[in-house]
Amino acid sequence: MTRPPVPPLALVFVLWLAGLGAAAQFAKMAVVLPELQAFYGETGAASGFLVSLISLIGIVFGMIAGLLANRIGLRRLLLIGLGLGALVSFVQALMPAFPMMLTVRFLEGLSHLAIVVATPTLIAQIAPPRHQGAALTLWGTFFGVAFGAVALIAPALLGAAGLSALFAAHGLYMLVFALIVAALVPTPAPARPEQSLTGFAAIIERHRAAYSNPAIAAAPLAWVCYTLTFVALLAVLPPLLDPRERLIAATWMPLTSIIASMTLGVALLRHISAIAVVVTGFGSALAVSALFFLTGPNLWVGIALFACLGLVQGASFAAVPQLNPSDADRALANGGLAQMGNLGNTVGTPLMVAIFAATGFVGLPVLLMCCYVAAIAIHFAFARMRAASVSAPAG
């Protein structure tokens, strides 16, 4: 008997749930970092690498993951990422010596990249066209949802069986979804054959070609302007507020971003292009950032700013298939999003802290506004390049 096909929207939800496991690869270390420092006796920069190593790997290998997806296939890359992620978490549950923990964390970074490049490309391929924007907006929430879920679940697991229980639970989650994906998600049509990845010069050339392509590069190069400020604001702004408002800010700024993305963002995507929604988000964030000059550190301005950034969050992923008809180019663009996202996450917080130390609070809205102006300029410049390439006479 032939098994009936799984509805496309159900597959989208399965892929989103699998993606939560990738975001949890970040969250599980960040949420329990004090406990890890106590266990290993490492409280300096070395322990920070338990969190940041994935970002560093993303910066170096993000685009390569997109190239690899085109060589071995999206579904296979996702299954490798989930399987490797499960294996790494089970090793972490053994609480190995610190050097070994860092080694398997490196492998976990490769797993993370495989998942975050393959999954949104598969979602764009599987989702019906009229639901594609909403499906990719849902994908854009995976990081915030996973962090919230891990923050809720981790204390109970730590109390029951310590750090090992958290890592084992994550490994089990990854293994279960590897099996579910293998059983339910069909093998997509093969992408175009990819050029050889051998040789440093060839890899650099593929990066140059991707980032000079106005369709592939538009979303990633504007995305770095978003990621430079999103995590940095969550780290820097709440401590500057009244102590009674800090927990509200830490909770409601990211939550407001998700709500705005899934409501107003999805509604706008039904009427205007994803790029137009992204530019609207950056433009409104630019205007709200200017209010900080009048208010100083302010809870409600921060929440309003994150609502604006919510439009950028989901629509940036939705822009990838709108700009890139082929799965091969979509994989490269999603690799670029991973690369630029990790770059922004890594650089943003120390940059904002350094500017605050040098200028006081007044430097923060200046940084925010510069980032958002740059993002808008990037999208307008690449839009002109795309229009020029379409109107240019052939041959």
Automatic annotation (TrEMBL):
Recorded topology in the membrane: Multi-pass membrane protein
GO molecular function: transmembrane transporter activity
Pfam families membership: MFS_1
Species of provenance: Roseitalea porphyridii
Localization: Cell membrane
GO cellular component: plasma membrane
Location of the Major facilitator superfamily (MFS) profile domain: 11-386
Record flagged with keyword Transmembrane: yes
Alphabetical list of InterPro entries matching this protein: MFS, MFS_dom, MFS_Efflux_Transporters, MFS_trans_sf, Tet-R_TetA/multi-R_MdtG-like
Record protein name field: MFS transporter
CDD domains: MFS (cd06174)
Top-rank taxon, per record: Bacteria
Major location category of this protein: membrane
Entry keywords, A to Z: Cell membrane, Membrane, Transmembrane, Transmembrane helix
Transmembrane segments: 48-70, 77-98, 110-127, 134-158, 164-185, 215-237, 249-269, 274-293, 299-320, 332-356, 362-382
